[in-house]
Amino acid sequence: MYLLREWLKKREIDIPITGVNVFSSFKSIIVNPPDHTSVIYASTIPVYLRKLQRQKKYLKDVQMANIEEDIVQKHQLYMPFPMCKNWRIDTRELITGVQCEKCERFGMEKLKKWWYCPSCGNIDRLTHERAVRDWFALVNTGITNGECRKFLRIDSHQLSSRILNSMNLIRKGEL
């Protein structure tokens, strides 16, 4: 909200800005909600917007179109990765292993052609790809065979190589 206000201020635009924290999953539990903004779930956004008090019209249609065009032109991709480094999270605190998408437990086991969840019996062929993408988002922009084995909790360096090769990643270094 602060940055948006500053961005608008530089363009000499004075309009009210309202913020809200939106959680995408009902599984999220808000322990200490902030006092200064509302906290809602994504599915309730339409209801929240309808309840906002309508105030006077602050911008003309032309001004709004200009702001829209400026936002699109100035947009930059936000890449906070790797998150552990940027937010000083010790990587040893991460839960490793392949997570089951059905029951969300970690520790899926690699069988011949699929991953098997011993907790719920779910079978998935490509769930390891999500875990490798999580590595890139959380830990580092690159991954070695050894790091892959440790993060996915697998023993075979051949399996790790097959997994990484199947994802069409950019290879660096020596074989």
Describe, in plain words, how this protein is organized in 3D.
The chain has 175 residues and is mostly helical. Helices cover 37% and strands 8% of the residues. The chain has 7 helices and 5 strands; from the N terminus they run H-E-E-H-H-H-E-E-E-H-H-H. The longest helix is centred in the middle third of the chain and has 14 residues, at 61-74. The N and C termini lie far apart (48 Å).
Secondary-structure element string: HEEHHHEEEHHH
The Rg value, from CA coordinates, equals: 23 Å
Q: Kindly report the average pLDDT value.
A: 90
The residue fraction in helices comes out at 25-40%
> How would you write the strand order of the largest sheet?
3-4-5
Biggest beta sheet summary: 3 strands, antiparallel
| Secondary structure: number of strands | 5
Summing up helix and strand content along with how strands pair, one would put the structural category as: mainly alpha
End-to-end separation:
48 Å
Q: Given the structure, what is the number of helices?
A: 7
Shape: elongated
Low-confidence stretches: none
Indicate the proportion of strand residues.
5-15%
